[in-house]
Amino acid sequence: VATIITNNKGENQVTVFKGASNSLTLEDLEKFKPIIKNCDILLVQNEIPYLVLQEALIYAYSHNIYTILNPAPAVYDINTIIPYVNMLIPNKAEAMQIFKQDIDTINHNNMIITLGEEGCMYINGGKKKKYKAYKVKPIDTTGAGDVFCAAIATQIKLSDNINGIIAFANKAASLHIKKAHVLDAIPYLKE
Predict the structure, then answer these.
(1) How far apart are alpha carbons 76 and 82 in whole angstroms?
(2) What letter does residue 133 receive in the DSSP assignment?
(3) Is 146 a catalytic residue?
């Protein structure tokens, strides 16, 4: 359950009662391992207990499943699980908290730092590239990062062109923030 307050600029503040997702156990994960094993990609966030998150990433990675971690909210020290993450997608504040440095000095392989209305930055092998966001008038930015990550996940196995993958995700996020309400605003592929 979440309470979402959105201002007249479309910016939001979310208060979450963790409830069911905070109750997940390693035993619950065991039930899902056959499903995970048959997936191409595992996309996870820090909204589940750390031990479940860690085990899910290790399990998927050990079965050659492409793993994506969106470390939101930044409530865990994820340095011990980063070796099991193929792509890391934090926002600017999360990246600075994880790496304890400004984003301009972070050096990590295969990471996208989302920058809100400024777009995002891709870091890989010591190289950095910024991508501008589409200019739209936001109605509600709630869930934009989630949509961005999901869009990356849908494209990452279809293409090795990171420029095209990020363009797709930026477009999806920009379409999302042009509508109100999180679920109703998720764009369809045809959009």
Answers:
(1) 12
(2) P
(3) yes
pTM of the complete model = 0.88
If you search the block for the tokens 């730092």, which residue do you land on? 113
Question: How far are the Cα atoms of 57, 117, 127, 173, 179 from residue 78, in angstroms, in the given order?
Answer: 11, 26, 22, 25, 33
pLDDT, one tens digit per residue, over 86-109 is 999 999 999 999 999 999 999 999
Buried b (16+ CB within 10 A) or exposed e, 166-178: bebbbbbbbbbbb
Residues in the chain: 191
Please give the single-letter amino acid code of residue 141: T
Among 28, 40, 77, 146, which one carries the catalytic annotation? 146
* Sequence letter at residue 71: P
Pick the closest to residue 56 from 33, 83, 90 (CA basis).
33
Three-state secondary structure of 10-52? CCEEEEECCHHHHCCCHHHHHHHHHHHHCCCEEEEECCCCHHH
Report whether the peptide linkage leading into residue 73 is cis, meaning its omega lies within 30 degrees of zero.
yes
Write down the residue that tokens 């899902």 correspond to.
32
